[in-house]
Amino acid sequence: MIKHYLAVSALLLAPLSVHATAWTLSSTTPPSGIASIKAYATAQTTSTSGGALFQSATLQSYPGLGVTASNDLSNGSTGSPDHAIDNDGGRNTTTDNPIDGAVDALLFQFNASTSLSSLSVNWVNGDADLSVLAYTGSLNSGALPTNADVSGESFANLLSRGWRFIGNYNMAVNTPKTINTDNIYSSYWLVSAYTGAAGSGKGDAAGVLDFGNDYFKLSSISGAACNGSTTGGVCGNSGGGGGVGSVPEPTSLLLLASGILGWRVNRKNHALAA
Ligand SMILES: [Ca+2]
Ligand SMILES: [Ca+2]
Ligand SMILES: [Ca+2]
Ligand SMILES: [Ca+2]
Questions:
Q1: pLDDT tens across 60-73, in order?
Q2: 113: helix, coil or strand?
Q3: How far does residue 35's CA lie from ligand 1's centre (Å)?
Q4: How far is it, in rounded angstroms, from Cα 94 to Cα 114?
Q5: What are the φ and ψ backbone dihedral angles of 27, each rounded to 5 degrees?
Q6: Per residue in 3-61, pLDDT tens?
Q7: DSSP per-residue string spanning 225-260
Q8: How far is C-alpha 40 from the chain's CA centre?
Q9: Ligand 2: distance of its center to the CA of 199 in Å?
Q10: From the CA of 8, how far away is ligand 1's center (Å)?
Q11: How far is ligand 4, taken at its centre, from the CA of residue 210, in Å?
Q12: pTM of the model
């Protein structure tokens, strides 16, 4: 009898485990579960008031993903460290048009709506601050609307058209960083070199974040897919699909299971005594 109720408890608990998937980014070909990875960089600009527009750039694998951009090329080198994901307009320049000029970024499209939970970099030059956005607006048949599809848009445009600031993070080489404590779900994620134009007040403290000196290669990401449907970044139950948002707390189920078990053991003891 006890074995039976332990088995029932195990069954109750089994669907609760949310399986995070880790993706190793060792090639410009996306790993299984990721539909596409595209590279962009905002234009190099002398403006310091924001509004620099994203242009297509070239995805590179070393392995660990880097970005070569036209503003890298125009400064004469795709060599280290500008071959990385960076927010420096050119090699050996020291002043790089803050707030948002020459910011390299990767746009990830996942097969399923995903809550990214961790990022790792396997190469850092000096500093490695990054910014993360997720798209939580409406999709057009699964695709980003044209005016939110990164190319030709600024950070300000994206943020006003369904993209949401997730956080700014100060990375260390080969040290996974926990991100997205708000547990936002999306099929589209933008990971860029740090810029205050992405947002502020989420992630690491402002004191460890600064612009223009960040160079890194993104080597792995992990996250969990939504089992139900995602609306506005929230994973909900699709009606029996077991959406993550609808799953009871493990502790309450444990209490319930142990309560049933306790009741059965108690009954059995009474029965034996009688
Ligand atoms: Ca670069
Ligand atoms: Ca650069
Ligand atoms: Ca930093
Ligand atoms: Ca920095």
A1: 999 999 999 988 87
A2: strand
A3: 23
A4: 37
A5: -155, 160
A6: 555 444 444 444 444 689 999 999 999 999 999 999 999 998 888 889 999 999 999 99
A7: E-SSEEETTEEE--SSS--GGGSPPHHHHHHHHHHH
A8: 17
A9: 21
A10: 54
A11: 4
A12: 0.81
